[in-house]
Each structure stands twice: as C-alpha cells, then as structure tokens.
Amino acid sequence: MLKQVTTAASPQQVWQRLLRSEPMFILDVRNRDEFERWRVEGPHPVPT
Known about the structure:
Blueprint (H helix, E strand, L loop, with lengths): L10 H9 L7 E2 L3 H6 L6 E2 L3
Parallel strand pairs: 1-2
C-alpha cells in the first residue's frame, strides 16, 4: 500500500527515493521515443 501520492517528481527526487528503496509506482506519460531513450526500471508507460 502506498503511503502518499505525488503528482510530479523531479529526477533527483525519484533518485533519492530509489536510493532509500522506497516503493513507488511510476506512471510515465512521456511519448514512446522519449521513454525508449531513457528510463528507470519499473515505470508503467501510458500507451500513445
């Protein structure tokens, strides 16, 4: 169960949460090309 909802996070904020092994559900709303060029393991892309 998630403890909080964040509508946006900077790359630095996400990195800090990853370093602390905090559970996250990442919904990636970038287009497919951007998603393929760079992503962290585990995001869920929105189909485009």
